Each structure stands twice: as structure tokens, then as C-alpha cells.
């Protein structure tokens, strides 16, 4: 059964990164972080022939949210029902992706200019399922970037039944910038998101964008209800090891990188046996030993050997041997999922 959602800390939905193997890996660090899937378009779920490819996950990943990309109310309702059937804990609508590949399909940030469509999609999903329905968006797009515009958007979407907004504190420029540039060039405006919480105290606001440390998270949590961390968790996954203790009040010991490596072994072995390639499984583990002695040798060994077609778990074990005292620490018990 789905577990209760804690929105105080979440990982971001990231295309080509936050797949099921990455989420399983991240879960080994924190039991309370809400994990988001990559964006899945409604078309892929409705017209695709392999729904399992997009929706399957390990039960250990809970709590987990499915992010959808789309705009048609009926399609969103259908896919929200699928999310509920598959046991997800939340369904989230992407209104933040600036990629020109999705704009023509009225997916992502372009929808900020169509608040009524977002409202109707949210209402259709709320009517279709008992899951929480949330929206992830920017603070504006192009010239539609005034605070008044943002408040109108929030108010309109809230009328559809959305009470939780994940706000990337940058506007999106839909022409002329790549998605990567849209994560870096438009300036962050945290104060604007803080003001939303003051002006809409009955709504839940989760802040996203540029959050690189738990110290950043704590500072933002003085002003908003939750924070979402993206690429910082990918580049240094050990940041997640302190989340439960620093933000959730857990008294459980934080896992070491070495402990997480041991915890991953049965999962890796199982996935390899089912036909998943080793390099795909190890992609999120590449930065496990970020800035630690032996990390460069560990990464180099994986880069040279994990991509080989016949690569086995021995490749990972050999890479771990490059990191001093990999298994010298006592294995901490994994909290119940």
C-alpha cells in the first residue's frame, strides 16, 4: 500500500536520470524523501505498447510520485487512474519543462500561458483518483513574468483542486535557450516563492531550483513547506544520507557510501539476471564516492568496463576495491521500507 507522503524534502523529476534504478539507489540513503519519476507523457501511456516500461518500480521506492506531461483533461484523468492502479503515492503535472520538443504538444512550461487548461486537467485528475494531485511549474514564462501573473496562475489552478505547488524559482524562456540554459541563465527569485506562501497560506509550496546543500534546504524551510533537490543529489548522492536526520528528526544512523554499496548488491544481481545492462544500473552510482579517496579510480574503472556487453557484477566489485576500506565499516541495518 502507498505510504504517507512527506513533502518536506523531495528529489526532482529529471529526464534520463531519475529512472527506477536511480530511485532505488536514492532510497538507500533516505527513507522519508519523496522520489519523483522522470516525466512520462500521456501519449506514451495511452498509445504505447509497453506501459510497464514507464510505470514499473520496486516497492522499496515508496513514497513515489508519477510526473505526467500532457494537457488534455481526459488523457490526464486516464493516466492518473493508471498511477493509482500501479500504486503511486502522488500524481504530478509538469508545467515547467521548457524543451521545444514538448511545447508543440502543449506540455511543460508553455502551459503556464494556459492556466485554464491546467485547472481543467487538475480537476479531471482529482475527480478520477483519490491520490494527491500536484503541479510543478516555473515562476513565469517569457514576458509573462510578473508576480500578478504568477498569482493568477496559482489561483486559477487551485480552483481545479490543486493544493500543492512545486515551484522552480526561475522563469523559463521558451525561445532561444536550451533546457540546460533554462536551468542556469534566468535568475533565481526565491523571495517570490516565499511571498506566494505568505499570500496563499492555505496552500502548500515546495521550492525547487539551485538547492545544493542541506543548509540551503533548512534556510528555505523557514519560508516554505518543502524543498526539492535535483542535480545536486545526482552529482553527490551522499547529500541524501543526512536528510532524515537533519530534516526529519530521525535518530537512525546515516548510511555511509560503503554501506549503500553493499545494500545495492542484491538489487544489482537481481536486475542483471533479468537482462538489464550493468552500465545502465550503475549510471546513478557513478558519483557514489564523490570527492572521496579513490573516487577517480572507481569512476575510471566503471567507465572502462561497465559498458561492455558481457559486464557482470564483478566489474562493480572491482571498482569498489579502488576505494579504500570499501567494506571495512560494519553494515548498518536497512530501515524497513
TrEMBL record:
Top EC class of this enzyme: oxidoreductase
Similarity annotation: Belongs to the Dus family. DusA subfamily.
Location of the active site: 97
E.C. number(s) listed in UniProt: 1.3.1.91
Function: Catalyzes the synthesis of 5,6-dihydrouridine (D), a modified base found in the D-loop of most tRNAs, via the reduction of the C5-C6 double bond in target uridines. Specifically modifies U20 and U20a in tRNAs.
Record GO terms (molecular function): tRNA-dihydrouridine20 synthase activity
Name of protein: tRNA-dihydrouridine(20/20a) synthase
Gene3D superfamilies, sorted: 1.20.120.1460, Aldolase class I
Record keywords: Flavoprotein, FMN, NADP, Oxidoreductase, RNA-binding, tRNA processing, tRNA-binding
Gene: dusA
Listed cofactors: FMN
A UniProt-annotated Pfam family: Dus
Catalysed reactions listed for this entry: 5,6-dihydrouridine(20) in tRNA + NAD(+) = uridine(20) in tRNA + NADH + H(+); 5,6-dihydrouridine(20a) in tRNA + NAD(+) = uridine(20a) in tRNA + NADH + H(+); 5,6-dihydrouridine(20) in tRNA + NADP(+) = uridine(20) in tRNA + NADPH + H(+); 5,6-dihydrouridine(20a) in tRNA + NADP(+) = uridine(20a) in tRNA + NADPH + H(+)
